[in-house]
Design goal:
about 425 residues, alpha/beta, Alpha-Beta Plaits, about 50% helix, about 20% strand
Length: about 425
Amino acid sequence: MKTVLIVEDSKFFGMTIKNKIETKTKFNVVWVQNITEAIKVLSEVDEDFFAGILDFNLPDAPKGEIIDEVIKRDIPAIVFTGSVSKEIRESVWSKKVVDYVIKDAPQSLDYIINMLNRIEKNANIKVLIVDDVAFYRKALSNLLEIHRYQVFNASNGKEALDILEEHPDMKLVITDFNMPEMDGFVLTQKIREKYSRDDLAVIGISSEGENVMAARFLKIGANDFITKQTFLTEEFYCRVTQNIENLERIHLIREASIKDALTGLYNRRYFFETGNKLFANAIRENLTITCGMIDIDHFKNVNDTYGHEAGDKTLVHISSILNHRMRNTDIVARLGGEEFCVLAINMRKEYAKKVFEELRVKVEKSSIEIEDEGKIHITVSMGVVTELADSLEDMVKKADKLLYEAKESGRNRVITSGN
């Protein structure tokens, strides 16, 4: 578990922040009240701190000296201060902190929580800086690295496209306009040929044209624009964070529309929408598909005997087994109730029986912990079709018929077409 260091001389604020973080996040907290204690902890504690939340004015360090002690150990620093004059603000930002937060702001503690979560997420987010001037690339890269983004650099549009080809999961491109070989407009247009605004954000940045330049960038597909010479560090971070969080919200909305809320598996709608596309490819002999229907044996008894919470745990348990056994290329869906369906891509017919039999055995040998009841055991029955039918719907019906045969012949078994 990751640990956050709090350096705050006020017992009220120190305890308040500590309790808030421990209640609202997964982080451990170490709280000290002055720079002397902080240096001792940083020197003696055998662990890397995830972040530091630091009071600017401490009894033994009244001018922000604690920030330097934390930053030099490569720990992201968030300054929590009572007031920010122009001089203090400039001093704080010069020390390359993540952010500063005013203590008397009503939502300040929530902001700190959000910032900690943001830093943790940023470690998995890729950002590409495109600028032919090395100084600007370095300056923007440094800012992003303070927030723990994975940063990539390109000196022109062609290099940028090559990097995107190698890293298709890039989330943000920040591109200058005036570059050799390919300017920022052309680069943005080429990016939009492959990536939508909802999948990859583009921020244009330039010292030319100001409002006119911003409008042109936005019209050709950029999500945002920054004027190079005049932006504040705070503005830069706010724009980057806003664009990243917009992408995350869109992703969550998409996930909610195609995933089952309880199990996290794909839902019926996604199964048939995507499955029909795969079926069309299978008809053209570009791939093969195997359809497996899975049903939990005596599931009604679980609900009736142990309650619906136990039933939900059972569904989640089965879903986890299916997800871990099947491949990323396969579609695993909950079609409704206790019924699941797997569409396996390019699975050899002779291998299908083995895979689904392994799933059956895995379920049979597993157990589910039910509060006040101990462990319960369940089984599943399966019907598996390895040959194409007239449609995906027909394949599902045939697999369902085989599943019914498995139920009728004793349950806890797999019946495969052709066997």
